[in-house]
Design a protein that fits this description.
Order of helices and strands: HHHHHHHHHHHHHHHHHHHHHHH
Radius of gyration: 23 Å
Low-confidence stretches: 466-476
Strand content: under 5%
Distance between the termini: 49 Å
Helix content: over 70%
Length: about 475
């Protein structure tokens, strides 16, 4: 009878094989063969599982890691499903068409991009959710931008820059609550400390959006297209200001700290009732749109492209991608392959600048590997807490670095739940909007610069303590 293999941490080269395998498989699929990432990620799952077995982990432990990874993403999956339903019902009921109609009449091309940034910032700040902002106001702004003649990746970048500013700075945001909880500081100390780096990143983003807006603003051809779209919307829907009630309800409920899922469901029900009143929808119409989305047949190509979307079924591609990705992330976490790589990085991070840079790059790497921003926040916060204490740095420096990287870069990774969700919701591929999502890639750069220049890097006071064990629950 063969002796039972002793369990150990994977060697660095073994962990790197798992990481490189995922990168190679996905790169080949997307760049070389122009196919989907699902099966390549499963090949990464296979590789990570084999490395785990080689290190002495049992199949049961590896399977548990996969299931734990999927469990961590269940809330995101439920939100994906209800947002898909919301989009279908809101279009059928005239909510999205009404937002498009009034937006096209009010927003001038010259101010559209900075206005989009600010509108999404305020909405996300009030609600604490980038996902909810993108799935409601963001969808309408995408349509308005297309009507005004803006490239959709440019509009999506402005939407997401604003959405993630609010998600990062709002006291209602789950990530904003989670980051300080992981490292041992309080919420408002964390938010105040983030204003230094976030203010710079946001200011630069706003200037860029204003400058780009001037290049695209003021074209008469765009206004002709706008009138064409307005006529197409008018022909299909009864437009009424009361149809703006559902998005207002969601914002108010979020501000009153009602959880995202019941808040979105209430917004769906409100739109359904208004749709019966204003569009004369039947219950069967609502059920069909909730599952299969809305199909626009106005005869106006621009309108049909804008309004043919939504439904639970439209999110199944993204849900399956998230499940595959979280299987991989769960194995990497359970078999300590991520921790092995991070421990090597920690040995090299001796100065304040190098420590903050390592924190930022680890969080970004975790978003690439673990495929979920909550796992990235938890892992990075826990692994670096003692290192910051050893260097005499206040934990708010760590929580800021984590939010400047883990929170805002999840949507830049196509196979991360954040990137998959935003691509599905806004209808713009992650790789396409990435260069124009200025706030989200500027934030980690500014954070690292602050570390190397020792700007607003506060020392650890004697009365401050970092708990040895951090709470790992998602406060949402």
């Amino acid at each position: 009878m063969a002796a039972k293999r002793e369990k150990r941490d994977p060697y660095l080269w073994e962990a790197l094989i798992s990481i490189l395998a995922l990168i190679v498989f996905i790169s080949l699929a997307i760049v070389r063969y122009e196919t989907d990432a699902h099966v390549p990620i499963l090949l990464g799952v296979l590789t990570a599982g084999l490395i785990g077995l080689k290190a002495g982990f049992t199949w049961k432990e590896i399977e548990t890691g996969m299931l734990d990874g999927i469990t961590n993403a269940l809330q995101a999956i439920v939100i994906l499903v209800v947002i898909g339903i919301l989009i279908g019902v809101w279009i059928l009921s005239g909510v999205v068409p009404t937002m498009l109609y009034y937006g096209l009449k009010i927003l001038h091309p010259a101010i559209f991009l900075p206005a989009t940034l600010i509108i999404c910032s305020i909405t996300s700040l009030a609600t604490g959710t980038s996902w909810g902002t993108a799935g409601t106001i963001g969808i309408a702004l995408i349509g308005i931008g297309e009507g005004l003649g803006f490239p959709l990746p440019l509009v999506a970048g402005a939407v997401l820059s604003g959405a993630y500013f609010g998600d990062k700075m709002s006291p209602l945001s789950d990530t904003t609550n989670m980051a300080p909880a992981m490292v041992g500081t309080d919420l408002y100390t964390h938010i105040k400390h983030m204003t230094y780096t976030t203010g710079v990143s946001y200011g630069i983003t706003l200037i860029i959006e204003i400058v780009i807006g001037f290049f695209y603003g003021g074209g008469e051809a765009n206004l002709e297209k706008v009138n064409h779209i307005l006529a197409g919307i008018d022909a299909q829907f009864s437009i009424n200001p009361l149809l703006l009630i559902p998005p207002a309800i969601i914002i108010v409920l979020a501000f009153r700290k009602i959880p995202a899922i019941p808040g979105i469901v209430i917004g769906i029900l409100a739109a359904g009732v208004l749709g019966v009143i204003f569009q004369r929808n039947t219950f069967g119409d609502l059920l069909s749109a909730a599952y299969g989305g809305y199909a626009s047949n106005s005869g106006v190509a621009a309108v049909d492209n804008l309004l043919t979307k939504g439904g639970l079924n439209s999110m199944m591609y993204t849900v399956s991608l998230v499940i595959c990705a979280m299987m991989y992330g769960g194995i990497m976490e359970k078999t300590n392959q991520v921790r092995v790589v991070v421990n090597v990085i920690l040995k090299k991070a001796q100065s304040t600048g190098s420590l903050i840079t390592a924190t930022v790059l680890t969080a970004i790497g975790a978003n690439l590997i673990l495929c979920e921003q909550y796992m990235s926040i938890v892992m990075t916060g826990k692994m670096y807490a003692q290192a910051y204490k050893d260097q005499g740095l206040h934990p708010k420096n760590l929580s800021r670095a984590v939010e400047d990287s883990a929170t805002v870069t999840a949507n830049l990774v196509p196979w991360n739940s954040g990137g998959a969700y935003m691509a599905a919701t806004l209808g713009v591929p992650t790789i396409a909007y990435l260069p124009f999502n200025f706030f989200c890639w500027l934030s980690p750069i500014v954070s690292m610069a602050y570390g190397w220049l020792n700007i607003t890097i506060d020392p650890l006071e004697e009365e401050d303590e970092i708990p040895g064990e951090a709470v790992e629950e998602n406060p949402a």
